[in-house]
Design a protein that fits this description.
alpha/beta; 29% helix; 2 domains
Length: 125
């Protein structure tokens, strides 16, 4: 598993990095790579047996977040996130999901949000 930690020089980022480096796993899965990024230079985590990469960038700069995430790579995250460039498609999926015609008479969804986010070609019933 590859983990990207933004704000790695801050208090939470440092503690998270130290814990992950020490444990070497997250939810029972081995951590192969830790990528740490912040606006200040960072040192590789001590005691981590996998590959560690450090980068210096300001994620407030346009395009910096996109560069931090490898294009075409599956983002296996422990939280929900999206890039600004992904918002138009996500917004359209939310609107299709929330449309009255996506719910039956008992209020149950016909097409899941997950399905709508996975494909633009899913027609509503």
């Amino acid at each position: 598993m590859h983990i990207l930690i933004t704000g790695a020089a801050g208090m939470i980022g440092r503690k998270l990095t130290a814990r992950l480096a020490k444990d070497g796993t997250l939810n029972g899965r081995r951590i192969d790579t830790l990528t740490l990024t912040d606006i200040v230079a960072l040192a590789a985590p001590a005691g981590f047996s996998g590959e560690a990469a450090t980068t210096t960038s300001d994620l407030a700069e346009p395009g910096a977040a996109e560069k931090a995430i490898a294009k075409g790579r599956n983002r296996d995250t422990a939280y929900f996130s999206m890039l600004e460039c992904e918002w138009p498609a996500r917004k359209a999926a939310f609107e299709r999901w929330l449309a009255p015609e996506n719910f039956d008479g008992d209020g149950r969804q016909r097409v899941s949000l997950r399905m709508l986010n996975g494909s633009d070609s899913v027609p509503l019933p």
